[in-house]
Each structure stands twice: as structure tokens, then as C-alpha cells.
Amino acid sequence: MVSVRLEKVTKKFGKVVAVNNVDLEIEEGEFMALLGPSGSGKSTLLYLIAGIYKPTSGKIFFDDHDVTNLPPRERNVGLVFQNYALYPHMKVYDNIAFPLKIKKVPKEEIRRKVFEVAKLLRIEHLLDRYPGQLSGGQQQRVAIARALVKEPQVLLLDEPLSNLDALLRVSVRSELKRLQKNLGITAIYVTHDQAEAMALADRIAIINEGVIQQVDLPEVVYNRPKNMFVGGFIGNPPMNFVEAGVEYNETVKLIVGEDSVWLPQEYIEILRKLKLQKVVLGFRPEDVLVLKDESQVEPGSSVIRGEIFTVEPMGREVLLTIMIGETMVKVYAPPTQYYSMGDKVFLQINPAKLRLFDPDTTIALEYLVKT
Amino acid sequence: MKRNVFSTNKVQLLIFLLPAFLIVLLFYIIPIIITVYVSFTPMRNWNIDKYFNVIVGLQNYNRLFSLITRDPVARQVVVNTIVFVAITLVINVLGGLGLALANFFIDERVSTGFRTLWLLPRMTPIAVYGLLWYYFFHGSNIGMLNSIAMSLGLIKKPIAWGQEVIPWGPWSIIIIVNGFVGVSFGMVIFYSALKSIPRELIIAARVDGASNWKLTTNILIPLLRWHLLFVTTWQLLSLLTTYAHTFLLVEWGVVSRTYGQTWALYVFNTAFGRGEQDQGLAAAAAVILVIFGAILGWITVRALGFNKMITKPKGDI
User: Fold this and answer.
1) pLDDT at residue A79, rounded to an integer
2) Cα(B163)–Cα(B170) distance, integer angstroms
3) Considering CB atoms only, which of A81, A103, A135 is closest to B204?
């Protein structure tokens, strides 16, 4: 097990910059998710770590060992792909044994290790089959076994669950997390699925257009997104954004349409420092109370007026799309209330959970103050 | 009212199949029937009126058999064919594979030009291509090979390679000339097959520690199995029946008639060649060639395990 460190890594393909000046450190035994939309450069980053690509500039370290110029076979990494990439002409046993055969490990030892890892992944009964005779979930276990059998320093996973059906994905996901923790292996996991990243990772690195946006614990990434991209990418549905004016008097408050929104003390201080005239108000769909009647509004709390656009019952809750002026927001409401299209409602945002962003840089205000 | 779907479909089916069926009938089935029929007649010198209705049974086949067993020229045709087909086949398949792998590992921009170069013999008209080799192997000092060998001091006077160096001179020439045309076929098939191997498989093998050589022997070649089978069978059958290049080389005197003539050329020369033309005998020889080709083709398919490749998976999916 090693730690992985990327220093100012840039990868260009012709004129396209796939990975742009990335600094990233993954600790020993850590499960790091690289999360981003397709084409964000997350897979390129993984392949850079695997040694498939060489960085245009920058350095990659395993512990303190510079591996930037080492070919893949000298890095001892395990790689698992979305489409499993099992060798179709080899039986499961030979697929798993392949990395050891290449290393000229003695036959008896190969046998022992293959059975050991097969037992770990519960695929002992499949060793005599060809990959084409396995289900998707079984194939992915074989692929993971092949990556683990050589006892890699780092386990790299490139969207390994994306080809599995939804139910299987959730069960393999929790299995994968247990496995990684039990083995204590450093793992880097590429995904575009924010739920997967949240569920699996110790930390999440969000990447967009080749640039790392934020690296943090899942709950920090979720609750305190560094910028509007992160807020808008994480969560299902993602964070809502509403433009708001700022009014500076004895206190500082936001103006949305005709409504005022009171702010927590933290933001009042930040805004007094930054003196912004306009901000973007961000809030998560679950951090809102939807009130149908003005009389329900607690005195002293602030609400934003809106109109229900669509109602989508989800069972445990109802997903409402609400128009605030020209902006559409999505919020969750308890299914105990009856909502219908066109209803006028009052949104009471949990002041502790609201986030403010600078409309020009899209960066969250608290991060603007820090830097 | 219910329309009869099947009858309309059948009519449509026939309409769509008709053009292709006519072509197959006209250029494939009818010629086969005629050839087989002619092999049972004493047809010679295209005297259709006189011989077409005369049936002589297996007489042509008997003649062919006694020619092969007694006539040294006819026997040499059999030897030539075996040597030519066997060696050229190996060159075509392994050469094509080697070129495809070379293309696969070198830079894409370079390999495009490289592949075009190897396709030139196939794109060049047969007569022009043959003429190039005619000058290359020419028996006088205008021959390129001779002038190179002489200027290097390897030989004192020009050698007629295809006439004097028996039998490997003429054999080498027909093998080289056909081999250069043949390798490009394998190269194109194998290269496109290599390109269609999922990139992840190759990356996986690299991460698993495979060098270029291990990647080739453990992953690439096993995955080309189906294409190897196809190219081998296809080349075997086309080498058995090809004669165009060899015909020119023999006619122009580059190679000796005795040692350069393969079975397919023998069939052509017997039916259309100089002197007395013996279509009955040629037809019998052609029929035997087709039967041999079919048997050899079947053996290759069996030996390379075609049936294994089409068995259905038996796992739970």
C-alpha cells in the first residue's frame, strides 16, 4: 500500500487539455473517488496514475518514489474497467492468473493465490468457465480478482459498476467498500455517479474540464460545496440556485423578488466584508419547508413566494418543481400534504443550510473570504 | 378480412432474391454443370458440334490419372502445386500477421503509408506488376537481380533464375510474386481485427505487466484466431486456383514451363493454351481441383476448430 501524490500534472492530447495542472494527494489505505461528468478528464487522470498515459508536465509519486516515467508494468497497480476487459479466450482461472504468469511466479504459488482471491470474491465455482459464460456481476468480480491477485500498491477502478443493473450495483457497491477496508488497500475510483461516490469514498475529488474543483469528505462536499459546479453536480436533484439582491442596513438580508431572506450571522459578516450587491442563493431540495398558507409561517422567519409547476410523488416524499419568478427550483415535501399545479406556496429555507455564491466567480462566499 | 402475410412475403422474397440468384445461376451453377458435363466428353479444340453429345464416361479422369503417374511433366505439375501452395500460404498468413502486428505497434501516421505501400502489388494491374518482376528476374544483364548480383561481385555472368536454377529458381519466383500480392490481404484483415480489439483489453494486459511480445502471444494472436482461420482457408483456396501471375511469368519465359506450372495453370493451358486444346481433360482436372480444394478447406476449418467457436455459451447470463 502506498500513498499517491500528483504534482501539477497536466495532460494534453494535441490541443485539448484533458487534465489541467492537477495537485492531488491520496493517502495510504484511502478510498478516493474521482467524480465528474463525462469528458471531465477523470479517466485520463486514472490512466495517468496507471501509467497508460505519460503526463505532458508534472510528476506522479507513489510514496516518495517518482513513477512519472515508469511503464504500467513497473508500477504494480490493479485496474478494473467498466466493461470488465476480461480476456475472452481464457478461462476465469487463467484470467486471474495472467498477471502472475507474466511475472513468472511459480505454478504452485499462482494456484494458491488464485484460489485465495477467488474465495475472497466468492467466485471459486466459476474458475473453470469462460468470461462469456458469466453474468455481468460475476464478470466484474473476476475483473476485481484479477486486479487484486498481484497484490497491487494501488487499486484503480474506472466506473466498475456502470454496466451492472441498478439492484446489483448497490450490492456490489457495499461489497466493494468492505473489501477495500478489509484489505486496507489504497483505492482510486472514477465515477460520474455522485451517489456512488458519496456512498463509497473516504474523500471525493470533483473534477470538471480537467480541473479539480474540490477535494473533501463526502459530507463537506455535499454541505459546503466550494462552487456552484460542485453544488449543482452533487445531489439528486442537485442544489437549487436563485439570484438574489443584497440589502445592507442595520442587518444584512437578501432580496428575492418581493421577499426578504434573513441570513445567519456567518454570512452577514462575510457579506459586510465583500460588499457584494448580488449573490446566488443555493439550497438543497430537502432543506426547505413548503408552506401552503401564509398563516403557517412562523413569525420572524423568512419565506420566498413561489408557484407549483409540477408535482412528482416519489413514495417517501413528493418532489415539487416550483417557480420563483423566472427560476425553477426543486424541493422535497412530505407526502402528507396535497399539492397541485398552480398552487401558491411559501418556501422557508433552513437558514443554517443555505449557501451563498458569488455570481461572477461562482465560488462560495465562505471560500472567497478564506483565500 | 385477414391478409395472408406469408404469401405476400414469399413474392417479395422472390423479387428481392431474383437478381442475385440469376447471377449465381449464370456465372456459378451453370458453369459448374457445364464443366462437370464436359469432363465426361472427349471435347477438344472447341469442336462443340462434334463432341458435345459424346459421352465417354470416366475416360478423361483415367487419362489424367495415367498422366500424373507416368508423364514427368504432369507429375511435376502436382509437385509444383504442393510446393507453391504450401509455402505461399505460410508466407501469406504469417507475413500478413507480421505486417499487421508491425502496423499495430507503430505510429498510426506512419502505418497508413506503410499499409498503402504493401497494397500496391494488389492495386497494380497484373500485367504491369508482372512486368516489374519480369525485369527484376530477367535472365540477361538487364535483369535487376543479375545486375545487382554482378555489381556486388556475387556472380560472374547473368543467370536465368527461373530457367537455370532448377527447381528452386522458378519456385522461388512464383512464390515471391504471388506472396507479395497475398500478404496484403492477410495484413488488411488482421490489422482491422487488431484495431477492433477493445482498447481496455490491451490496457489491462499492459497493466498486468505484459510486454509487447507477451501481449502479442497471449492476447492478440489468440483473439485473432477466427481471422487466422478465415485468411488461411481463403488463401488456401485462392492459391489453389490462381494462375494469372504465373501464366504471364511462364509465357514471358521468366520461369520454366515445367517447374513453374501449377495445377490451375495446367487446367488453363490444357483448355486454352497453345497447340492442341483438350477441354475434356482440362474439365476433368478442374473438377479434381475443386474436389481437392473442398476437402482441404474442410480440413483447415476442422483443424482450426471452427465448430468450437460457434458453440453456444452454457452459463447463466
Assistant:
1) 93
2) 7
3) A81
Whether B286 maps to a domain, the answer reads yes
Could B203 and A50 be called an inter-chain contact, meaning their C-beta atoms sit closer than 8 Å?
Answer: yes
- Nearest CB neighbour to A135, from listed B201, B214, B316: B316
Domain that holds residue B159: 72-309
Question: What grid cell was written down for B92?
Answer: 501469406
- If DSSP codes are grouped into helix, strand and coil, which group holds residue B312? coil
Residue A178's region, left for phi above 0, alpha for psi from -120 to 50, else beta, is: alpha
A102–B214 CB contact, under 8 Å: yes
> Strand A288-291 vs strand A344-349: parallel, antiparallel, or unpaired?
antiparallel
In a domain, B28, yes or no: no
CA distance B220 to B198: 11
The closest CB to that of A87, out of B201, B206, B317, belongs to B201
Does ipTM exceed 0.95?
no
A102·B206 Cβ contact <8 A: no
Pairing of strands A65-66, A211-216: unpaired
Which grid cell is A81?
474497467
pLDDT computed for residue B97 by the predictor: 96
C-alpha cell at A164: 451492472
Mean pLDDT in consecutive groups of 10 residues from the start of chain B, 317 residues: 61 89 94 93 88 88 92 91 94 95 89 88 90 89 88 86 84 92 92 92 92 93 90 92 91 88 91 87 94 91 71 50
pLDDT for B316 equals 45
Contact A77, A149 (CB under 8 A): no
Using 70 as the pLDDT threshold, list the residues of chain A that sit under it. 370-371
Q: Does B78 reside within a domain?
A: yes
* In the block, residue with C-alpha cell 477467488: A118
Q: Quick check: is B289 in a domain? A: yes
Given an 8 Å threshold on Cβ–Cβ distance, is B206 in contact with A87?
no
Give the pairing of strands A344-349 and A327-333: unpaired
3-state secondary structure (DSSP) of residue B83: helix
Q: List CB contacts (< 8 A) between A70 and chain B.
A: none
CATH of the domain at B239: 1.10.3720.10
In this predicted structure, what is the pLDDT of residue B308? 65
pLDDT of residue A7: 94
Q: Is A68 in a helix, a strand, or coil?
A: coil
DSSP B152: T
For residue B205, the distance in angstroms to the closest alpha carbon of chain A comes to 8
Least Cα distance to B99 among B3, B179, B17 occurs for B179
Question: In what helix (H) or strand (E) does residue A20 lie, and over which residues does it extend?
Answer: strand A16-26
Chain B residue with CA closest to A132: the answer is B313
pLDDT of residue B153: 85
Beta carbons of B222 and A89 less than 8 Å apart: yes
Residue B23 to residues B29, B34, B67, B174, B286, Cα–Cα distance (Å): 9, 16, 36, 33, 21
- Residues from chain A that touch B217, judged by Cβ atoms under 8 A, are none
Number of folded domains in chain B?
Answer: 1
